[in-house]
Each structure stands twice: as C-alpha cells, then as structure tokens.
Design a protein that fits this description.
The protein is of the alpha+beta class. The chain folds into 2 domains: about 10-115, Inositol-pentakisphosphate 2-kinase, N-lobe (Phosphorylase Kinase, domain 1); about 130-465, no CATH class. About 40% of the residues lie in helices and about 15% in strands. The chain has helices at about 45-65, 80-95, 155-165, 180, 185-200, 225-240, 250-265, 295-300, 315-325, 330-350, 350-355, 365-370, 380-400, 445-480, and strands spanning about 10-15, 20-25, 30-35, 75-80, 105, 110-115, 130-135, 205-210, 210-215, 400-410, 420, 425-435. The radius of gyration is 25 Å and the shape is globular. The termini are far apart. About 35% of the residues are buried. It is found in: Cytoplasm; Nucleus. Its main location: cytoplasm. It catalyses: 1D-myo-inositol 1,3,4,5,6-pentakisphosphate + ATP = 1D-myo-inositol hexakisphosphate + ADP + H(+). This is Inositol-pentakisphosphate 2-kinase.
Length: about 500
C-alpha cells in the first residue's frame, strides 16, 4: 500500500462516527478509515483485520444488490506500518473535536480500510467539484401489528427523536426536516424537506467544495450555519457569468437552484439491481405522511388542500433505499422478542453462532436468506434469526448516506457516458454513491429497543405537556372574559 509512503502531513482529519475515524489525503483521491475503541478496550490485529474485511464483504456481496455495484464503494483492507499510523494519529489528534476524543484511534493493529474520497472522485481533476452528502434516515412509518403505541403509526421516528435530542443538548433547535417528505416522490414535499435540511443541517446534510467542507454540522458548533456564505460558495457553479452577487434574493435563488438539482438527481433512474426483486411491503400499506411534519401541519391549516402521494420512480436511489429499509416489517418491538429467542438459543448452543452467520461471512447465502419474507412465526430459531438479520440490514439502510458529486460542463463537452442535470444557467455532470453501509451490530438490538421506548415516551410526555399548557391558557382566557351580571 502506497499510503504510508506519503508524508503524514499531507493527510488531514476528515471526520468520524461512533466506530471509526477517517483521514483524507490532500492531493490523492483516497481516504483511510481506522476503527476507534474506548481506552480500556483492545482487540488483536487479527480481529481488527477480520472486522474490516467483513465491512468490505458486506458492501461487496450484500448492499450492492440493493443499490447497484456502481454506487457501493466497498474499498479494501490495507496494512500500514505502525510508525506511520502513530505519526498520523499524533498529527490529526489536535483537529478532532473534544466530544469525539473519548475513543482512541486504533494505532496498534496497523490495519485500515482504504476507500475513494467520494467528495472528489469521478471527474477530471482540474474541474471544480461540488459534493452534497445527505443522510435521509427512515422514509416510512411502521405498519407492524407489534407496535404498542399508536403515535408510531402517525409520527415518524426522526421527528419524535428530535425532541429527545434537543432535551439532551445534542442539538439546540428542532429540525423541520421530515424524511417522509423527502421519500414522498412529490417534488413540492421534497423541496420543502431539502429546504429545511439547509436551514437546520444537523448531521443530515454536508456540502463540500473541491473536497473541503463548506457547509454542515460541526461538533459543538454554537454559531448557526450561514446560508449567505454558502450562496457565495455556490454562485460560481450555478450563475457563473451574471452579476448576481449579494442580497437575500440572490441567496434564495441560488439555494432554489441547488434544491432543484438535488431533487432531480434523487428522482433520476440509476443502475438496475436486484432490489426490485425484493417482495417488500409497498409504501402504500402505511400512511405516507407524518403528522409532525411542518408540511403536513401547513396543509392541515388549509382544509382545501390535501397531501398528494406521487410515489418514487422504481429506478431511483431513494426507492432502492426505501426498499432496503422496509426489510424491517416487524418494527423493533416485534424484532426484540425474536432477538431474545436467538440469544437464549446461543446460550444453550454457543458454538452455533458461526453456523448461524451472525458475524458473517456475508456472502450470497446470507443475501438469499434476506429474501425470505415469511410472515408466520413458526417458533423456530430460523424464523427468528431471519427477521433479526433483515432488521439489521434495514437499520443499515436507515442510517446510510447518499453522496451527490457535481462538476460543471459545457454542452459540447459533456460525455454521453455520464448523466447530466441542467439548471437555468448551468449544466453539470453528476455521480451518485452510497456510503455508511456497515451492517449494524447484532448486539445493538437491545440498545435500539430501549432507545425506541425512550423516544416514544418522551415525545408523548412532551406533546401531552404542550396540550395541557394550551388547554390551561384557554381556560385562563375564558376566566378573564367571564361577564358577571347583578340584579338591579
């Protein structure tokens, strides 16, 4: 691997999640992804290598069936010298947010995952590039009979979770973004969703210019994102030759163009893949809108209007994402008892864990089992494990990110091999990719069950308190307006 031959000063901190940390090279279009661990936890180099190889196999042999091989970049496992890794760790440690430093980068195994830098790839190097990363989250309401709280049939997980995150200080403001609006296929609702993502990006939207982050959430960032500053970055892409340079009208116009491009690409047809063969439940089975959505509330105030459900084109990436998400047919409340059944079985037969493929290998055999949509629980370990594995894949799809890379082109320059999107003043070649496709850990199901209960209970408590406050104010107003009549 040539990465370690590159000066460590040419690498920079790129970002991180709960389980891994990513660095990118300033010149070469590659990133290295290292696992992270709490200070008191160690794994052997062989375990690290195996874990990373599983990530590669899961993307290569499983998720490519859902999204298409062209859109899934599984990367490769590489071994680096320990001296290079330690020097790199020291170099980037100062760039990491304080809130992320509770977990250490793996500097002992020497193994990392080498991936293409999706913010810069696919195009001629000298051309400017704009990259939009969207984490759309879950695009449907549960339809399982195992759901215990009716509110889950009406309000989506994302909108409910916002209240708990704000209460815990994760975010300062509630986002008005609702995933069901984005997944609706209705351009008006999609535009509304994307506009609210821009207003309150949190960790669901990032924008890169030539590989540099220019817009989006940064950990512990108190200052709000500046849309006018973003418009200045975007203006050369969307209005390269006119005099529109400042003012709110300019910002609104540029952001409107950006939203138009994103919507067009998200609805465009992509490479054919096996996702269309999945016999998942059609989105029409559940409600197609969330009662907490600001879009829904706005229409609710005007009884003459109603929400139209246009539906997603079957070839578009959002449709494929939704199909993978809807492998979750039971909801966590239906899956959790099945998880406990598997756990009890493993306690009795611990050597069966490998045979059951809980930790891989992720191959065609694993994929074929995901296609089993039996709805009758026959009490077997096979049924329970199938539903647990389907849920894990669904959770992966609910947490994936979509990367859209744009590069300006002239009409006579655009290659027929690459798709093109046109705006009022510009035209772009574009590329779409999907990332964050690690299979969700089997052990996380217990945590998901507890978190689901916390989210729902807090939302019910919060909305009930709000309703009580409104009613109390109404009663006070009525008391203030009481007219007392006395006999003359």
């Amino acid at each position: 691997m040539e990465a370690e031959k590159m000066d460590e000063n040419e690498w920079r901190y790129h970002g991180e999640g709960n389980k891994s940390l990513v660095v990118s090279h300033r010149q070469h279009c590659i990133v290295l992804r290292f696992l992270k661990f709490p200070p008191n936890r160690n794994k052997t180099p062989e375990e690290i290598s195996h874990h990373l190889q599983n990530i590669v196999y899961f993307g290569k042999h499983i998720m490519k069936h859902f999204f298409g091989e062209k859109y899934v970049h599984h990367g490769e496992v590489v071994q680096l010298s320990l001296d290079f890794v330690k020097q790199l760790c020291l170099k980037i440690q100062a760039e990491r947010p304080e809130s992320r430093c509770d977990k250490e980068m793996d500097v002992l195994s020497g193994y990392a995952l080498c991936l293409p830098n999706l913010t810069r790839m696919h195009f001629v190097e000298h051309r400017p590039k704009l990259c939009i990363e969207i984490k759309p989250k879950c695009g449907f309401l549960p339809f399982s009979s195992h759901v215990s709280q009716d509110i889950k049939y009406k309000v989506c997980r994302y909108c409910m979770h916002q209240h708990l995150k704000v209460a815990k200080g994760k975010w300062k403001h509630l986002s008005k973004y609702c995933p069901l609006d984005l997944f609706s296929g209705n351009k008006q609702r999609m535009n509304f969703a994307l506009r609210n993502l821009l207003y309150e990006a949190q960790n669901n939207l990032k924008i890169f210019k030539n590989g540099e982050l220019i817009y989006g959430c940064k950990d512990n960032e108190d200052s709000p994102s500046d849309l006018n500053e973003l418009a200045c970055h975007l203006k050369p892409f969307f209005f390269p030759s006119n005099g529109l340079v400042s003012g709110p009208h300019c910002t609104r116009t540029i952001l409107k163009e950006l939203i138009h491009v994103i919507t067009t690409i998200l609805l465009s047809n992509t490479e054919t893949c096996k996702a269309g063969d999945l016999k998942t439940v059609p989105s029409s089975q559940g409600r197609s809108y969330c009662e907490a959505s600001a879009f829904s509330k706005e229409l609710g105030r005007n009884a003459k209007n109603k929400i139209e459900t246009s539906g997603l084109p079957k070839g578009c990436l959002l449709y494929k994402t939704l199909q993978a998400q809807m492998l979750d047919t039971l909801d966590i409340e239906g899956v959790y008892p099945l998880y406990n059944r598997v756990e009890q079985y493993l306690e009795e037969f611990p050597k069966e864990r490998n045979i059951l493929q809980i930790d891989g290998p992720y191959n065609e055999s694993f994929y074929e089992k995901l296609l089993d949509h039996s709805s009758e629980d026959d009490g077997t370990i096979t049924y329970a494990l199938t539903k647990v594995q389907q849920y894990r894949v669904a959770m992966t799809a609910k947490d994936c990110s979509i990367m859209i890379v744009l590069s300006p082109c002239q009409q006579d320059e655009c290659s027929e091999q690459r798709p093109v999107v046109v705006t009022s003043k510009s035209r772009f070649t574009f590329s779409v990719s999907v990332l964050d496709l690690d299979l969700k850990p089997y052990e996380s199901i217990r945590h998901q069950y507890k978190l689901d209960g916390k989210i729902v209970n807090y939302y019910l408590k919060r909305t009930q308190a709000k309703d009580d406050s409104v009613m109390s104010n109404l009663l006070k107003e009525n008391e203030d307006c009481t007219l007392v009549l006395h006999k003359m």
